[in-house]
Amino acid sequence: MEMNKLKKMMRKMEGYMTAASFAEEGEFESAQSLLQEEKTVLLALREGHIDPNTLKYAMNASKRIGAHLDILYISSTGESDLNEESMLLQYQSELKADGVPAHLVRKTGCIKQEIIDYTNKEQDVIFAVVDSPNSLDGNCKKNDTRLSELWQKLRCPLVVVMEGTRA
Predict the structure, then answer these.
(1) Considering the entire predicted model, what is its pTM?
(2) Domain ranges within the chain, ordered by starting residue
(3) Across residues 47-55, what is the average pLDDT?
(4) Would you give the DSSP letter of residue 109?
(5) What is the third-level CATH fold of 37-160?
């Protein structure tokens, strides 16, 4: 079992035990709030396609619904250029200042496949946010029918933020 999954499971158990303690003391509302499932918004970004409107949309949506924000950054080399690295660091600072828990994950390859893999692995993703339809085809094989079938069966809604969209 992966260490992250084990830690997540331990946090859930601690939450259950704390909720049980509150319930025993008659603090039912507190207990219920502790038992609410963790929610995550997935922000999928592709190298060279980071739009400030998309970043703002994902942050505002996460903040409104009280969700964690997982940032999935897909590049051709696994690293970002200096401008994008600076933008990601600034974004993480803004998220922290606004009280939105965030986690940056770097991957390489096809963004569609990485979104599918991530949402299949992380069951608490309630929706994924992407920049534009054009950003979804980078580094993907055009004739991959398996990927097309999986993409149509994506485990969560996909929000596409386009020019002029505001959150």
Answers:
(1) 0.74
(2) 1-36, 37-160
(3) 90
(4) S
(5) Rossmann fold (3.40.50)
